[in-house]
Amino acid sequence: MKPINLCKLPLVALIGNVGVVQAFDGPDTDYTNDPQSRHVWNESLEPIELVNSILCFTKQMRGTEFINDGPYRVLADEAACFDNDQDQSPAGASANNPEYMEVIVDIEQQTDDSPLQVSAWMPDMGDEDEQQQAIKFKAEIVEGVSDENPFGQFTFNFDFFANIDDVARLGGGEVKTINDLDGRIGFTLYESAGTDSQSASVVMSEDRSEGVALTSSRWDGGFGRAYGLAFNDSHVLVQSANSYEELGYRNGDDSGTCLSRTEFEDAVWRYDLYDAETGDRVDVNAGFSFRYDSDGDDLDDSHGHVGYWGLWAEDPQAIENGDTIRFEDPVNDQVTEYTVVRAPGRLIKHTVETLSFNEASGIVFNRWDDSAIAEGYDQWLVRYLTVNGDNVELDGFYRVAGANYTEGGTELEELEVPSRIVLGDFETLYLYSEQLGGEVKYLQGDDNLTYYRQEFINGSETGPNDVLADGSLSLVCVDRCLKGTLEAADLQQFDGPNSPFVWDPNLDFGPFEYSFFSDGDMPLTLIRVENGEAVRYDPSLTEESLGDSPHSWGVRSGPMVTPEVAETFSNPWDIYNDEFVTEFYVWETGPNEWNQLTAVRDVTDAIAEFDKPIQFSYHHSDANDRSGSAGEHDGQVF
Fold this sequence. Notes:
Blueprint: H1 30-33, H2 46-59, E1 72-77, E2 100-108, E3 116-125, E4 133-143, E5 153-161, E6 169-178, E7 184-193, E8 196-205, E9 211-219, E10 223-231, E11 235-241, E12 257-260, E13 287-292, E14 302-307, E15 310-313, E16 324-328, E17 335-343, E18 345-356, H3 357-360, E19 365-367, H4 370-374, E20 379-385, H5 387-390, E21 396-406, E22 409-420, E23 428-433, E24 438-443, E25 448-457, E26 472-477, E27 485-486, E28 512-517, E29 526-528, E30 533-534, E31 536-537, E32 555-556, E33 560-561, H6 563-566, E34 583-589, E35 597-601
Parallel strand pairs: 27-31
Antiparallel strand pairs: 1-2, 2-3, 3-4, 4-5, 5-6, 6-7, 7-8, 8-9, 9-10, 10-11, 11-12, 13-14, 14-15, 16-17, 17-35, 18-25, 18-34, 19-20, 20-21, 21-22, 23-24, 24-25, 26-28, 26-33, 28-29, 29-30, 32-34
């Protein structure tokens, strides 16, 4: 049985050797006193997760506070309760924002002893990149939760529609508690949408010490699995088959997989961060929610959220550069106004990190190249293999599998014999590793790999030692240098005269100079000094209008450094040499919101500062693993 244990992990090991740790786990610290939660997972319980998600989502409606007050609007965070597929844009920023959605709720109760009648309308639920649906929701709540009955007594019915005004039902379902069996409690679930369906029926004793459950998930009308479970205080017996009718118990067969309810394989799924000396919880200012006027009638009628990753709003097209948004402090009801600042791109700072080959063993890398396409794959999976550890002829990087991406996930086809990647003198191998946080490169002949920490520059970095301490930043580019304002004709080639990069057959490299200002006529925008142009897409361009352009999603410059660093170069290729460059900047721009920067200024004209994600390198080991054995991850770096 593989439960997921949502417990705190002692993070002293994660933040390195910081000296003597005295009191982080003392009796009165946040580390010691913060609550822990546990969750047991098994594939047979997956349909039951939908019940948890529905209850989690409806809890955000805070219905008992608005009984008989008439319809009211809720801005609920869908991502907090439902595991939707995240947007995998090249920048990956949108995946970190809350996914707020509007819900209209109306709750009525005839008398204090009458059931609550809950009606809810959700105009747009689901991932924006896929087909969103409207949901109409009706519930009758007879009894709240109690120690005797942790489920309460309710019936939830929900239906899916293409939009909120449509009457053609696309699917729906019901969640209902079981309250008519003497001495037993439980619930049932059924949901269907198109050819997909899932169901569950759970009945147990009032003390939840023993019971039975049936669950089923089905896709495309036929493919799926059904499970039967029986449990007591110490064990769970699980049967599985293609359908309920084929489960063994129906024919007197009591065999199955016996799992323990008292012995577990623990895994940390989520943890907080604590100060290694004091045990204080590290709190991060990730952003705030706000209200704004979306229709110009001087009334705040819409909501949004702004933070390190950018701005989310119910109607983002209604928020323009210079508009006012308002943050209302929920503690003291104080309202603070901010002014929206939009820039046509964003400056990204990269800090160079290195990794030895000993630490690279076991890490999975991805590589895109023409040979993968020729072999029928979207990309290669690459590992660093050694003579002693992997029985190969030479230490080096090897293609070990081909990968294809489908709607059902990643399909891997392992190669019968790993294929070594052979590099020429001074050739650079470009890889990607989710484990290391992004881009990885190796220059033939080096003793290590290079990877990067990334952070956005949003204009708040104006402190004495910050990059914008003087209000501006001068940068030099020598490779893949962007022209300036880009028209459609500049976006037709990866390289060459019709590419977004400065191209001159008589000029091998720059240097080309750029400026970035925290204020002024074009704040937070990269300016090419030679022509005075903002480095951006022409405002008329859209991803759709660019069609098959190789840059329809956006474009990134090559690495840029300060003039002081550029003066140390003996040749342009030193820009890629970590002996010369430990920090560099990249400018990203494009037609999409995630290619651009949105920040906010307070009444003092200062850009609001939001905490960046806390990044660290962590070496895993047997000693740091909850189980005492790190397995294949022993010695690896994350």
